From TrEMBL:
Monomer. Interacts with PABPC1; the interaction is RNA-dependent and stimulates ENDOV activity. Keywords: Cytoplasm, DNA-binding, Endonuclease, Hydrolase, Magnesium, Metal-binding, Nuclease, Nucleus, RNA-binding. Endoribonuclease that specifically cleaves inosine-containing RNAs: cleaves RNA at the second phosphodiester bond 3' to inosine. Active against both single-stranded and double-stranded RNAs. Has strong preference for single-stranded RNAs (ssRNAs) toward double-stranded RNAs (dsRNAs). Cleaves mRNAs and tRNAs containing inosine. Also able to cleave structure-specific dsRNA substrates containing the specific sites 5'-IIUI-3' and 5'-UIUU-3'. GO terms for cellular component: cytoplasmic stress granule; nucleolus. Its main location: cytoplasm. It is found in: Cytoplasm, Stress granule; Nucleus, Nucleolus. It comes from Knipowitschia caucasica (Caucasian dwarf goby). This is Endonuclease V. GO terms for biological process: DNA repair. Belongs to the endonuclease V family.
Length: 255
DNA sequence: GCGACAG
DNA sequence: ATCTTGTCGC
């Protein structure tokens, strides 16, 4: 009889690593949709954002959020908040194994309840190809859902020589206005993403990378076009609404 | 060995 | 991710 046992953390990470390497080959790094070819993204009507928010002392309970916004108006057309019980811990490089299952469930609910509102592209809070094994959560969600995805991280993941060193800070300082960007090139010369000044009033950039079914330049341009503030509106709305859900359903513990 | 490390 | 108010500036 085959015995199953909870793998040690290190073995679990090895399994996850090979899973990421396997799925990495399924990522499509070019524009596959008609609207992506158009200078003004004509034909793009719905963009989504996903995020998970947690309660302070509980890292196992979270509110999984999916929002669909109109484009280019960026008004919320659909919202889904769902409390979920996470099983996987947060380990840098393996964020997808912790959060993706619940994001896929949210997309599934959308498909069943409002199929007409299925998004044409999903913004994910985190990285895509800008990852240790070039398969961050944006790629993971993209490959498993089949939807075009863009990864937008608020902090730089230190992969293959990328770091917030002097040279990096210098390049950031050179970003003059919203829309300006520079490539994030690894020590081996590969471009894994771009640092983007998402709007005029932010000195701190966001890190954009390919998730699935979109080119890097299109992802950067689209991200900029979805920014009212530093963080793309779809992700920002998902964050705001999931936190609001927690505030109203799980009031801070009193004395 | 030490530090760094998406959310 | 989360703990946290006001404050300075456009």
């Amino acid at each position: 009889m085959t015995q199953m046992s909870a793998p040690l953390a290190e073995d679990q990470m090895k399994e996850w690593s090979s899973e990421q390497s396997r799925l990495r080959g399924l990522v499509i790094q070019h524009d596959t949709e008609p609207w992506q070819q158009d200078p003004h993204f004509s034909g793009l009507k719905r963009v989504a954002g996903v995020d998970l928010s947690f309660i302070k002392g509980d890292d196992a309970s979270a509110c999984a959020q999916l929002v669909v916004l109109s484009y280019p108006q960026l008004e919320v057309l659909y919202e889904d908040s769902q409390m979920v019980a996470l099983t996987a811990p947060y380990i840098t490089g393996f964020l997808a194994f912790r959060e993706t299952p619940f994001l896929l469930e949210a997309l599934k609910r959308l498909q069943e309840n409002k199929p007409g509102l299925m998004p044409q592209v999903v913004f994910v809070d985190g990285n895509g190809l800008l990852h240790y094994r070039e398969f961050g959560i944006a790629c993971h969600l993209g490959v498993l859902s089949g939807l075009p995805c863009v990864g937008v991280a608020k902090n730089l993941l230190n992969v293959e020589g990328l770091a917030k060193n002097e040279e990096h800070r210098s390049k950031i300082a050179a970003l003059q206005k919203g829309g300006d960007s520079f490539p994030l090139t690894t020590s081996s010369g590969k471009v894994l993403g771009k640092a983007l000044r998402s709007w005029d009033k932010s000195s701190k950039p966001v890190y954009v990378s390919i998730g699935h079914k979109i080119s890097l330049d299109t992802a950067v341009k689209l991200t900029h076009s979805c920014c009212r503030y530093r963080v793309p509106e779809p992700i920002r709305q998902a964050d705001i609404r999931s936190r609001e859900y927690l505030r109203s359903h799980f009031p801070p513990a009193d004395t």
